Each structure stands twice: as C-alpha cells, then as structure tokens.
Amino acid sequence: MLEKVDLKNKLKKGEYSAKLAELGLQLGEVQRRAREEQRPIIILFEGWRGSKRSEIINTLMQNMDARGFDVLSSMELIDVTDRPAFEFFWNNLPGLGEIRVYHRSWYYLRNVHQGHSCETSDMYSYNHINSFEKVLTDDNYIVIKFFLHLSENAQKKNMTDESSLGYAIRSKYLSEHASEGKRADYQTFFKQYDEMLSATDTENAPWNVIAADSTRTATINIMENIIATVTAKLEAGKVDAPAPAREDVKYDALSKVNPAKEMTKEKYKEKLAKYQKKLQKLQVEMYKRGISAVIGFEGWDAGGKGGAIRRLTSGLDPLGYQVFPVASPTVVERNYNYQWRFWIHLPKSGEFSIFDRTWYGRVMVERLEGFAKPNEWQRAFDEINEMEKQWADAGMVVCKFWLQIDKDEQLRRFTERQNTPEKQWKITDEDWRNREKWEAYEDAVNEMLVRTNKDYAPWTIVEGNNKYYARLKVMKTVIDLFEKRLAQK
Amino acid sequence: MLEKVDLKNKLKKGEYSAKLAELGLQLGEVQRRAREEQRPIIILFEGWRGSKRSEIINTLMQNMDARGFDVLSSMELIDVTDRPAFEFFWNNLPGLGEIRVYHRSWYYLRNVHQGHSCETSDMYSYNHINSFEKVLTDDNYIVIKFFLHLSENAQKKNMTDESSLGYAIRSKYLSEHASEGKRADYQTFFKQYDEMLSATDTENAPWNVIAADSTRTATINIMENIIATVTAKLEAGKVDAPAPAREDVKYDALSKVNPAKEMTKEKYKEKLAKYQKKLQKLQVEMYKRGISAVIGFEGWDAGGKGGAIRRLTSGLDPLGYQVFPVASPTVVERNYNYQWRFWIHLPKSGEFSIFDRTWYGRVMVERLEGFAKPNEWQRAFDEINEMEKQWADAGMVVCKFWLQIDKDEQLRRFTERQNTPEKQWKITDEDWRNREKWEAYEDAVNEMLVRTNKDYAPWTIVEGNNKYYARLKVMKTVIDLFEKRLAQK
C-alpha cells in the first residue's frame, strides 16, 4: 500500500492557515452531530517514528471542540505490553457520543511485542486485530485509522530531535526495559509496515495512508478525511450488521446429561477439605507463574451457582481472586459494547476473575427477551469465541460451567426459597417467568454449549440436582485445568 | 489503645459455626438494606502481619451476598506507593449502595511510605488521613475500620507460613523493590501502631480493635460489629453534617482588578512564539523530573477559558497532557462524592491535567443553583483546600486561573456569538440566565478567591477583556510556576 503514496505534495503556509480555520469549523460541527447521534468514534494514529504524530494531533486539538474528545497518550502503552491484547483499549473505549484519539494503538503494541519477545505470540495476530475492530464497527463504532508515511530522507531528518518529549519518554522507557536492539533500516520497516497495512486494511476499518513528509499537508488531509468519514457514517445512520450464516440444526448437549448424581455428606466433607487444600496450593503456584484465570458460571435459576462459587473460593486467598456478580447492564455499562463490562474485570497477573453469570447472557436472556437483535445475538457466538481466544492466547485459563438441574428440582428449590423467610429475597417474579420459558431456554443453552465449547475455553456441564456432587465437580474441574496449564511452559 | 485489649477470649468450634450461620443471615439482610438506601460502605482491615486478614475476609465473603460487595486486594497497593495519597482509594471508591472491603488501606501505605523513603513525607500525615475519612463520612459514607491485634506469641507463630499467597506476594514484591530493611521488633511496632490508632481514632470513623489471637473469635466480633454499625447508621438515616463556622465578612478580590489591559497583536504574536518554546522545554524537564501539574480554569461565561487553554497547550506535546472539560455531573459521577471525578483524572508522573471548569463548581454554580446544600458548599472551602494540599504534598504543581471580564465585555461576546452562525452553539439560555445573577456570582467568586488562595495552590486572576493579554498572562504564570518548582529539589 505504501508504494503508491505521493510524498511530494506540499501546501503553502497561507493556504494552510486558511484551510485549517475552515476545516476546524467543519470538524467542530461534525463532532457535535456525532455526539447528538450518540456515535462513538475512534481515531488512531500509526506511522513512522518521526512522522510528527504529536504535532498533528495537537493541531487537531487546537481546532476541535475539547468536550468529549480525549487523546490517549502512547506513554500509557509502555505499561501494558504484558497485558492481554486490547484490554487497555477496552478499558479506554469511547462511550456513546465520545471521541477517543489513540496516539499509537494496538498496532504499536503488536510491534513492541514482536520486537521484545523471543517466543512467537498470537496475542496480536492480524486475525485478532481484524476481529477486534469488527466487533466495534459492527456495533456502529466509527473507527478511523491513519498511517503517517514518510520518505527515507524525511524519516532520517525528523528522527534527530532529542529535545522532544517523545525522545525523553523513549529514553526513560529504554533505560527501564530491555533494549530495543539494533534498529532495522528503512527498507525492512517499509516491508513490515506494508505487510501490516495490507493484512489489516478491511472494508469496515480501512487504512488511510497519509503522506507526511509535509506535516501541514498531512494535517489538512487528516482533517478532511475525518470530516468526510464521520459525515458519511452519520448520513448512513446506524446499520444492522448482517448476521452470519447459521446452520439450521438442532443442537444438543443437555439431553446427554443426567443431572441426578449421588453424593453423601460424609464423602463431600472429606473431599471438600482435600480440594480446598489443593486449590490453596495451586493458587500460590499460579501466582508465582503469573498465570491468571477467568472462570464463568451459568446455569438455571436456583441451579446452585452461588453455592458452587462459595465452595470454590472457600480455600482461596481473597488477595488473589474477585467474584463479579453480573446482572442486567447498568446505565454506565449500556454506554459501551456488551463485551466492555467483562474486559474491564480481567484478572491481573496470577489472579482469578470469577463471574457469577457472564457474557453468555447475550445468547440466552438477551436473545430470548429481545434485548439483543437477532443479528446481534447471532454474531455473538463468533464474537465470544474470539474474545475467549484472545484471553487464552494471553496465557489465561478460561473455563465455563453450566449448572444443570431438572425442572422438578428447580420447582423444589423455588418453593423452598419461597417458604424460607431468609431466602425469599433470592426468588423473584422474573424467576417464575423464566421458568415458563424452560424449553426456549433449553434450545438457546444447547446452541451455546455446542457452539462455544472450545479447547482453549471448554464448557463443563455440572450435574446439579445434588449440590454436594456439583460443588465438588466444579472444584475438581478447576484443579485439573490449573494443573494442566501449570504443566505447560 | 492496644493495652486494654483482652487477647485471651476464645470461642469453641461448635459455638462458632452456629454463630457464623446466624450472623451471615443478618449480615446479608443489613447489606440489602444498605443497598436499598443507597449508602456506600467502606470496611477496612489493618493489623499485625500474621493476623489472618485473608482468612477472616474470606469467611466474610462466604457469608455475605456477593452482589455489590468487592474486596480490594492489598496486592494492588504495591503498584501505587509512588502515587498521591488516597488516589487509589478514590479510584476504587464504592458507589451509592455498594460495599468495598479494603484488605489493607491508606494506613498500610503510610507505613510503607515511612519505611521506604529517606525524606520525611507529608503525604500520609494523620491530618490528611483524618480529613480524607471525614470528607467521606460527612457525605454519609459508612466507614468501618478494623485493627486486628495479636499478642507477641501469636504474631511470631503466625508469621512463618511460607506456603501462603501473602508470603509469595511479599517475596515477589521484595525482590522487585528496595529491601524493607531489618524488621523492627514487636514492641517497636506496638508503639507505632498504638500511636497511629490514637491519632486517627475519630468520632466519625473510630477504630475497632479486634483481638485476633483466635481467628474465630475475631471473625465473629467483626461480623457483629459490621451488623451493629451499619444498622445504627441506617436507623439514623442520612445526616446533614454541620457547616463549619463562617465569618460574616464581605470578601473581595475582584474589585481590585481592572480587567481592561492593552496588548497589540504584534506583541502577542512575538511573545506567544517565545512562550510556546519555553513551555515545550519545561514540559520535557518536568517529565524527566517526574513532576506533574494540575491546572484549573474558571471564569465568567465567555471569559476566554477555552482560548487560553488552547494557547497554553499549543506548544505542548499531547503525549504529556490532557484537557478535561467539566460540565454538570453525569449519571456515573453522581454515584460518588463530588471530588471523585477530579481525583480519577489526576496526572501521571510528569504529566499535566488541565481542567476547563473545576471542583470549584461546588462553591459557585452548585451553591447558587441549590445543587449543593448550604452545609455542603460551606464545608467545601476547607475540603477543597485540603484536597489541593494533598496534591501539593505529593509534589504536584497546583494552580488555578480566574478569567475576569467585565459585564459589558461579556455582553459584547455573547452578542457576537449569537450573531455568528458557527459560534451559536457556544451560547445557551443558561448563559443568559447566569448573567442575570452576576452580582450573586460575584459574591461567591470573591469568597472563593479569598478563601482558597494558598501558597501551595494559588489563584491567578487574569485580566481578560483583551484576549491577547489574558492568554499570555496564563502562559507566563504557568512558566513561572514550573520554573519555581523545578528549582526546588
């Protein structure tokens, strides 16, 4: 893509100032419209070192409306190179009607990662990058990507500014981290960049390669580009991304499972103590190795999720895990893509995040109650598989439990809750309504269990009529998965 | 406070299990009531190393409702020792109706700070600690503080558990950071703890010293204590904290200032270029020294805040600063104390946070429009002084600008905005309404400028009728303050 860029074009100073003022007004206008229409906008800048990203972004800032417009400094990226890909950007996603400018982005992290790590890592594969961008654009985020291109001469000339903040930052970074090694030459980078651009130049998030030998020309081009792109997206309005092709099959996973298993209290107590000790040990080992885990719990209402989580955590040190109960999204959470509220709770190095209900709400309650449109929940199977793959590729243990009870057992438990004063708060009208839709839920759950059961993020169906049995099975499964992961390098 | 604690008391196992189950139910009940009544609760645990904080907190978690109940691992504190005191806790404050448990808190950071730093630091002074807690309790946060006390024997016995997660964390931490030095003996710690407890045992946030030689007894006491405290606070309902005594004086700062100053465009252009270069240099020096700055802008509507900020930042690299426009609080922001939305935007090391309107809204618009109660805005003068002192004690440059124009100049600018199509969005009915209250605002501004003008966080009144003059004065003031700060060690 870089070959065809004309680097000679150059604006005169008088022309530039006049254009700048005019475009600034238009940009402000476009910005206010986007805010009114509640469209989130991401504008990212990549390109050669020395391509004057800072200067260009500052000119943009001087000419835009500061409200709802945040520039994310690439300084922040220095601290997140070890974190799962995209986590930082999820944490700093623009909300509805906001603009976020990334002064370097996931493409930069991809490069850092490739440069610093001896192992090949899949964290920032082109596939993950394209998928990440697609999740956003399918959700009507406007994503505008700029690559600032320089000729070899301009690049050499611009590189020497040792009085800049960028230089100071780089120096500090280099003295604190492993050396970046010998810098490759222009041609090597050229090829690398060109490959990256081609591989990630998608219809939904295309690259805009900007000739940046002249910073002024580049600035004007960028402003024109933002105005044109945002205007076009606003005119088109929010679009329902097409649902992916879907096989017309009857999925089944639940009918193979008999939820009634036996377990005596004595045996339970004996094993419980044993498993608690084991988990305690494993938690320390996982911490030392810096391996984290995401553990999700789903299941029928009154299926025993809470009890299973309590037993699982009973042996753990609260220093190293957090439980996140998931309910219908809050006002804040509705400001973002549905994945957001899970990404922001990813575990730190060596810690565990346990979710009581999960992102699978998308293909269960949101699907059945109409909170998600058909194209949205149908896309969600692939999106969720991809999200969990990203976590797994970052080295995490990812696993999911479905707590399976039968309809009679649920009725028994509902009735017991109803009749026990201190348990009444646990049962609501909604639970009874959901129960009436048992068969519809069963279909949705079956599809979910089949389509999102992956090596890197397996479902475990837990026979749940007997609580003792269920709790131990959960603990044992986690123990096995941790041991398996610890056995890997 | 520690002398009188009876460490001998011990529960039998049977008694314990029965109590635990009973208290767990009560705790869940109390928790749901606090959520309904939208009271945020902070529960913090300090105490001797080896006092089984983790075990106790885990038992609590097993017996409470996980919804809205978060434990903040002290693991997280390792990374924030260099940040301004309390910032981390503001970032992790419970919202309305939430419970946050701190497994170690600002008291721990105070100790780390004292241990590791050669210089005396005021960051975690008792005064700052008491003020921080008071801001919260005055705002009807429920703050419950536990100190887990151990006898010398129990402390020695408990210390040796090298298989624990806490031990693994400490080892990792010690290998990554400066050594903690030789551990002091029990008596030395005893005296230190005792002093700390006495100095911070306030009426609004008293210490609960818990005898923890027996973990079981401690757990039961803690649960009883939480139930009793929260119940009492809920029965009392939300209380209006008394307004501090207020002098009945006519404050004046504005009348001494003549907003009409002269400045030609030529002189402006010449100085502008010079100041931009200077600021660019200073930004790099500040970054290298790790000195950050908080710069706040207030002023009459159409006073020229936006223009002044744009000129100030025109020479800066966007890598190192962020502009935060402040409007009326969002749904999210209303979930927290009014200071929250400023704390979460504190600059990182060597960076600048620029606020377009600030926390002073509390004593201006919120005061005059009745969004804050009299006792709230009257408390705010002291609260804000204290907040800025905390920032300054963390080494930050803190400064504030008031852009002063006269009533005629405002009318001229309003009319110009009204008559210029691309500026119309800048003027609203609210601006005209505020203008009618000019005199009331003048009184409020005068009180603010006098009562919150401090050495460590000075106000600069900027004569604003002439925009050129005003912009340069802002830039020059920042330059001077940065140079002064850089001249200090």
Question: What's the layout of helices and strands?
Answer:
Two copies of one chain form a homodimer.
Chain A: H1 13-36, E1 41-47, H2 53-62, E2 69-72, H3 87-91, E3 99-103, H4 106-116, H5 126-138, E4 142-149, H6 152-158, H7 165-176, H8 186-199, E5 207-211, H9 215-236, H10 265-289, E6 293-299, H11 305-314, E7 321-325, H12 340-343, E8 352-356, H13 365-369, H14 374-393, E9 397-404, H15 407-419, H16 429-436, H17 438-451, E10 459-463, H18 467-487
Parallel strand pairs in A: 1-3, 1-4, 2-3, 4-5, 6-8, 6-9, 7-8, 9-10
Helix pairs in contact in A: 1-9, 2-9, 5-14, 10-18, 11-18
Describe the structure.
2 copies of one chain form a homodimer. Chain A has 489 residues and is an alpha/beta fold. Helices cover 49% and strands 12% of the residues of chain A. Chain A contains 18 helices and 10 strands. The first copy, chain A, has helices spanning 13-36, 53-62, 87-91, 106-116, 126-138, 152-158, 165-176, 186-199, 215-236, 265-289, 305-314, 340-343, 365-369, 374-393, 407-419, 429-436, 438-451, 467-487; strands at residues 41-47, 69-72, 99-103, 142-149, 207-211, 293-299, 321-325, 352-356, 397-404, 459-463. A 5-stranded parallel beta sheet of chain A has the order 2-3-1-4-5, sandwiched between helices. The first copy, chain A, has a 5-stranded parallel beta sheet with strand order 7-8-6-9-10. In chain A, β2 (69-72), α3 and β3 form a beta-alpha-beta unit. Chain A is elongated and about 85 Å long. At the A-B interface, α1, α2, α7, α10 and α11 of A face α1, α2, α7, α10 and α11 of B.
